[in-house]
Each structure stands twice: as C-alpha cells, then as structure tokens.
C-alpha cells in the first residue's frame, strides 16, 4: 500500500495538470466563468433558506436570534457537501468518459478519481473565502480560533471521499446501474446528514433511532467538524472525529484495494 | 542486445459482460461472485503463447488479419494491458502511436493540449517547452494552435497527436495503423520521420495492413494468425506467404460465392434471352486447370461454360465481357468479331476461352457471358452474374496492366530496389 501511495505521489504533476485542465475546461464558454464555483452553492443555499426559513420555518433554538444565522449554517454545510456529492457523481463517470486514456495509452488509472476529488476540492476551497466573508458581515461573533481545525476536517473528508470515489469509479465500470443508484442515494444521504438541520436539534437528540443513524454516518461528523470550526466556534467533537479519521482511512484503504484489484478489467470493460 | 523480448505471451479476455447480464450488484456482492473464477466458456484467448525478440535498432512489422491478436500484443507492449501469462521485457522508453490525441480536451486550446498530452505521455513541462516549437511546426498548425481543439478537423487533430507522440523521443516506437488516416502530404512526412528514427538507431514496431509499407520499412516481419505467430523472418518472404494465404482464403470464399450464385439460378434481372440456346455451369480455371476465382495479375485464366440447345441452331455467337467494379468495361469480344462463322449446334456442348495472361490491376471484376444471334437477338445473356478477383502486389492503376518495360539513357542514375 505504501509503495502504491508513493506511486500516486510520483504522478503529482500529472494530477496537477489534469486538475488545472478540468478547472479551465469546466467553465470555458460561460459568461460568469469561475464565479460559478461560488454561485452554485450560493443558489442552493438560497433555495433552502427560502424553503426552511420562510415557507416551512424549522424551529431550532440556535437560529432563533436572527434568520440569517440559519442561512449561514446552511452554507457551512452545503459547501463541503457539494464537494462530496459532486465528487461521487463525477467518479461514477470518470473512467467511462476517459476511456480513450485507459484503453489507448499507458496511463495510471487511479489518477482519474483523484483528479475528480481534487478538482471538486478546489471548487470547495474557493468557496471558503465567501463563507468567511458571510461570517464577517452577518455573524462576526462566531469567528474564533477553532477555525484552525478546518484543515483537519478537509483532510478527513478528502480521504473518505477518495475511498468512496475509488470504489464508485471501479464498480461503475462493471455495474452501470450505480450511476442511477448513486444520485438517489446521495439525496437520501444529504437528508441523513445534519446540513439543513443541526445535529443537536431536540428532534434528533430525543430519538435513539435517529441519533444512532446519524452517528453511524461518517459525513455527520465531517460536516459537524465544519460546523464546530465555523458556526459554533467551539471545541470540536474530537472523539467522534478521531473515529471518523479511522473510518475514512479504512474506506480509503478498501476503496483503493478494490480499485486496484479491478484495474486490469477496466481496459476491457470501459 | 534486444530491445523487446516476449516469451510465451498469453492473453485471455474474460467475458464479464455476459456473466453479469443476469446478476445484480447485490447478488454479486453477497455471493462474492465478483472475483470468482470464470468458467471455461467465458474465456477468449487473444494470444496463445507468442514469443519473439527484437534487436535494438531494428524495425519489426506485425501483419495479420483482423482479430489475429496484433493490437492486443501492441497493447501489452505499450504496457496498457497485462499479459495473462508469459512475460514481456522491454528496454527503454516506449511511445505508442496507438491512438493519436488520446486525452485531448475539446474545449481547450491546441497549445494547452500539447502540454497536457505531453505530460500524460510522460514528458516534463520543461521538455515540452523545449520541443513545443518543433511539435507545432511538424503538425503545421501554427495558425490554429490557440484555437480550441474541438474546432480542428480530424486531420489537424491527428497531425497534432502524431507530432506530440513522435516528439516524446522514445527508444521504442509502437505504431498501430495510425498512418491510415493522414492525408496525401502528411503520410510521407510521417514516413520520413519514421525513417529518421530508424537512422537514429531506434527500435520500431509497426502494425499495419499496408503490406507495401511494411515490406519497405521493416527489417523483420511477424505474421500473426489466431493469436499465434504463424511465420516470422525476412519481410519479403513473410509478406508473400501472407498474401498467398489471403489469396487462398479469398479463393475459397470466391469459390463458395460462385457456387452459391450458380445454385440460385433465379437472377432473372441479370439473365435474359429466349433460351433456345442455354448457358449453364460457368467455371474459371487457372493455368493448371484448377478451379479458381482469385487470380494474380499476370496469371493465365480459362473461362468455360456449358451450352445446350433442344432444336438445331445455325445462327449463334458466343461472347464475353469483363467489367471492373465501377462497371467500366475492361474488355469484350465475341466469336463474330473474331470472324467465326456459326454452322450448326444441337444437344450439349462446352465453350472455353483461354487468356494466357490476365494483365488486370487489383480489384474485383464482373464477367458477362452471352450467346445470341448475329443480329444481337439474345438466346441467353448473363449480365454481371459472375465475379472474380485480381490480387497483386503491384500498385499500378487504371483498367488493365499493359505489359511494359522501362529503359533509360546513360546519365540517368536510377535503379530498381532489389526484391529483398
């Protein structure tokens, strides 16, 4: 495994180049260009703010004070979630889309899912300054040194996403159904993760079933880490987060292992 | 010292697609059939134990029919796929011209794609910068290099891909039939570049159906058949043996097709006439009297057919016509033109026409045979009912191959390439 990791590091220039190509190509021809990286999560936030702030307002004690707090809370969660969900959605396609590379030239295939996760990570990181700006304008009280935990949250999410990306990209080659399953699964997963509601909402804390379900979801703890680092501005849930680090590492390991095992079949099946 | 050594290469393709047709993800995971061994009938051997070695600096040609395993072998050589068993040892950097421009992104400019493609092919940024001008010059794309690749014509796309791949400066160059898509001016340029590689002492492996080029540029040729090396060695010898095999195979096919056509006697739109004299059982033979429908350019041919008439006839003319695939008549004659005077015929008989040397160019030909009255009234006319093929290594063009010989005055230095 270690030698494989070294191999991946050896390809960093290739990954860099491919990521910058993806970033360049993504918005080429659009009027707003790179700004779409910011607008997409902003628009999503706007939709949820309208639905859950005005149409069917959820009563969470955290947001009683000001309606805008809920929007900021939403944005804190949606930003990393977008990274996660777009990474998985794109991973399902990435090997098929780049079939020519796999079939026709000698190419380190694992670079492709890495490229997907890295590209989306950059979109995510570009959104962070906007998030900080929101906090500065609307909720300066929340800003604290705990935001230094951000890199840790990003790291955990990166390895967890990476592992799933390996798994999804490799299996989709053989089971094309995964693409369809995945989009539905991600919707379900989105609502099973404390993004549009806080984890310590009484509705969840009072129900053992809901609480267990949410605790078993690694994304809960990852998104919570962002909430702690930005929104709550307090000591993160370090115990649960360290377990999540392990789970993330395990996913990475297994994801890569299955990917590696299926690698030789890609040429024939893509 | 060898540059490439393959020993006992086997490549087995597993037919995953069939296996999973009736499976779901769940059952595959639950029953762990994902990695289970495959049944024998789900396997297909594309290579069945191929061994060869190639000296550094030599050019190897690989020929063979479609599906004989050429591309599979090239993919293993390029390191794209792994052999199921056996080993492939290569020395030096390999560049594979298997698909040109693999990994080009249509939305971004040619210049950016040069850099990305170069990095994909294993060059560093610095190396690409050094070679950038040469790549663009060779591809003849200086005016378009800033445009997105999606606006390129397929020729431009191919030229850029070829130019990058060849500038990777490999020790071993693999070429898979990519020259087939180039236009008339670019292909010679590519061939020049390939010759330059040869002069520099690089190793080249060349897969192609263009037997002439193979014969011209290769030092050694391997003929692959059904995943095995059928023959290897001296280019001329292998190419000739291959051509002979293809000819034989075409012959069998042509023979079968001929018999089929003969059996289906119903082609009424191709046959007409009053049937007072009837033609049947047309056959073609070579000089040795062997039935055959594929001929070499200068081979003798013998056309022969049965006739029968119920009543006594005293006015009849036999004629033939040879047409090429475009429908152009290459030759036609009849017994009247050649001053034969019909006297009488009744019952059964056989008519033969002997051609000492066919002298036609490569291609498929149609044969007309007819028997009619002197004034043209048809008894039996068979139009385009019979086909035969001419296969030759000559690349001459036109309708027929006129027997010829070149001669040159003194002072003109010109020599025929020796038949290797």
Low-confidence segments of chain B, ≥5 residues, pLDDT <50? none
Helix-and-strand structural type of chain B: alpha/beta
- Oligomeric category: heterodimer
Helix-strand pattern of chain A: HHHHHHHHHHHH
**Whole-number count of domains of chain A:** 1
Most extensive interface: A-B, 30 and 34 residues
Arithmetic mean of pLDDT of chain B: 84
Average pLDDT, all residues of chain A: 88
Judged by helices, strands and strand pairing, the structural class of chain A is mainly alpha
Q: Rough shape of chain A?
A: globular
Low-confidence stretches of chain A: none
Strand residues, percent of chain A: under 5%
Strand numbers in spatial order across the main sheet of chain B: 5-6-7-3-8-9
Compute the separation of the termini of chain A in Å: 25 Å
- Count of beta strands of chain A: 0
> Given the structure, what is the number of helices of chain A?
12
CATH homology-level superfamily of the largest domain in chain B? P-loop containing nucleotide triphosphate hydrolases
What characteristic shape of chain B results from the CA principal axes? elongated
CATH class of the largest domain in chain B: Alpha Beta
